[in-house]
Predict the structure.
Amino acid sequence: MSNVGALLNGRALRVADGVYLERLDERQPVLEEHLRALAARLPSFGAQRARVRRFIALAAAAEPALRGLDDAALVADLQATCVAMRKQGFADPLLARAFAAVREGSRRTLGMRHHDVQLVGGWALLQGMIAEMETGEGKTLVATLAACTAAAAGAAVHVITVNDYLASRDAAQNLPLYGFFGLRVGVVGEGMTPAQRSAEYAAEVVYVSNKEIVFDYLKDRIATGGVPASQHRLRGLYRAGQNPELLLRGLHVAIVDEADSILVDEARTPLIISKTVPDEHGGELYHTGIALARQLVRGEHFELNEHREIWVTPAGEQKTVELTAALDGVWSSTLWRRELIEKALTALWCYERDQHYLLAEGKVQIVDEFSGRVMPDRAWERGLHQMIEAKEGCEISGQRMTLSRMTYQRFLGRYLLLCGMTGTAAEITPELRRVYDIAVFKVPTHVPSKRVRLPSRCWLTQEARWQAVAARAAELSAAGRAVLIGTRSVEASERLSRDFDARGIAHAVINARQDKAEADTVAEAGLPGRITIATNMAGRGTDIRPDPAVLALGGLHVILTEFHESARVDRQLFGRCARQGQPGTVEAYVSLDDELFIRFAPLLRAAMLPAARRCGSLSPRLLNLLVRHAQGVAERYNARIRLSTIKQDRKLQSLLAFSGTPS
């Protein structure tokens, strides 16, 4: 095995050492996965805390001598330390010396010296953990500690972010530091040619979005026919000139920013490379399906449950037989007829414009539920996308033929060292341990938080809630505070924006329609009197810096207008204020008509309605009970979907292996 393999292969792992240096797929016993999840719920890291204190002391002891070195000597010191790591691995004494050198390099090039807690975050990364750090604690700078050290030791480092903008921004921000130590930085983004991508991936440290790197990996698998890397290397020796150019050079170290989003939230759906092929049935099939589905009555011909699952009743089956009696082709097949009608009903009843998708340039574009961003290059499978196009009167696109597919779980599990950073991981620690065998290490804040959580308030109807939000924001804005209002959908953000317009209140909106301008808008959200409406986690990763006048009045005020299915997303929104010991306040203004309560806590909601009607609202204590119950049910439901995705992926792998088809 190469020096890189020795450096990163701390546990007994089977590693492919060929064109790609990566961890091989190994099916682990389900019982072992359950035991890992159980262990993750037990108290831990008591001994680790003492180890971290010793580590910080070692780094502090090395700092005075390193500060006395000139630039060339400082670079040489890091290189010498990292050469030793190739034999000893990321041993604490070596890691402390390396981090002290990177910290000094950062002070000289970026004007920023890593705090001790940031060293702790970097240490957790190179131990193969998720560093849970409060929003605003400088995770972007923390990544440079691990990236510089691992890259100087010879590993290919991929810093994986949630979008191209953040990848480009973070790379540019830290370029002077990497350049100081002689490390090249690559940035991979949308629109690049294969040659450009290959050149960027050749750099020691590469910043790339999760979507781009998985698709590039899949392209390499297609180019090699899906065979193991070592076989591909041997094949290349005998078939000179026919060896396809690969984009990546292995899966050594992945530093995942916003790890909860990428490792968990995005993991519900496998990533698929496909090509569009002509639809043998033509667009008329989908228009007919939508027209037929519009004639069916909910409760009589079909049922729809709280999880957006549809099934046709016997009466509905009979009705569709009558409606399609004069039609031929696939409509004469019972199985095809049921499949098409269910897809059409799903398109009509389960997917809403400006919530699940947008119409842009006459095309249906999917909106990511967790990030609030448009995903223009993605499509729903098995005819659902075409049904939604027919529903909206758009041109029907062709069917997609799958060329290669992979889940995030399987892709990220192939890295020799997987680690990450996020502000919210506590709730998903058991799942991370079960699926990725990765632990979570909570890093203390640099200074104590001054965030104040005000009591949540609940109204009977959405209309009453929106009016209250508008009045509250106007009141705070008039007093000179900066206000950030979080909504769950594009539709909700635009609904609230219309209320503000009617009241003559100046404000800015960030949603999937203004995706390109979101960073600039978020950067200005801390000005006095500024009101910013943002969908979900729009602008996540961009600091809101409150003006001194705003800080003097209490800092940024965040209003959550609808609880998310995941409490982590709510915490991320609240974390936009009161960073680095600044003041700030947060509160929730919600409605009993919100989707979370109707979908995941219908019985408890119904039980609370009489009391809410008598008082005109729900007390904070009852509301907190309702929220905890609904989010708990939603988290368990979404976790089951993610585990189902893994099981389906494993089943497909087994079938492909049995048939001899490359996966």
